[in-house]
Amino acid sequence: QVQFVESGGGLVQPGGSLRLSCVASGFTFRTYAMRWYRQAPGKEREWVAHITSSGGSTNYADSVKDRFTISRDNAKNTVYLQMKSLKLEDTAVYYCIRFLGGTAFGPWGQGTQVTVSS
């Protein structure tokens, strides 16, 4: 079955960095675009970053542009999110998901918690 396993979250001070990983299984990874989303307490889940199936093109939410970098390794069925210059407002649970034709195809994984705090 389709599965996404996120990891790499943790507690970091403002201005710090983290690298998130997401291992996907149960489908042909290289044929799907991938996205990272996040959900902060009391807020709706929001899109963070997008990468095409080949990895040749990426897009970011304005709130993370120039601070976050999405990448993928199709040989490892893994998508990454490198985060730098972290801010308090980046605190959230981060999820990865496959994306095709304007739709996110789940199921959603457990996510990984990122907490930015001094």
Distance between the termini: 40 Å
- List the uncertain runs: none
User: H/E element string?
Assistant: EEEEEEEEEEE
SS-derived structural category: mainly beta
Counting H and I runs of at least 4 residues, what is the number of helices?
A: 0
What oligomerization state is this entry in?
single chain
User: In total, how many beta strands?
Assistant: 11
Please, what is the average pLDDT? 96
CA radius of gyration: 13 Å
How many strands, what sense, and barrel or not for the largest sheet?
Answer: 7 strands, mixed
| Morphology | globular
Fraction of residues in H or I helices? under 10%
> How much β-strand is present in the residues?
over 45%
Structure description:
The structure is a single chain. The protein has 118 residues and is mostly beta strands. 0% of the residues lie in helices and 52% in strands. It is built from no helices and eleven strands. The strands form two sheets. Strands 2, 4, 5, 6, 9, 10 and 11 form a seven-stranded mixed β-sheet that branches. The chain has a four-stranded antiparallel β-sheet with strand order 1-3-8-7, with no helix packed on it. Strand 5 (46-51) and strand 6 form a beta hairpin. It starts with a strand and ends with a strand.
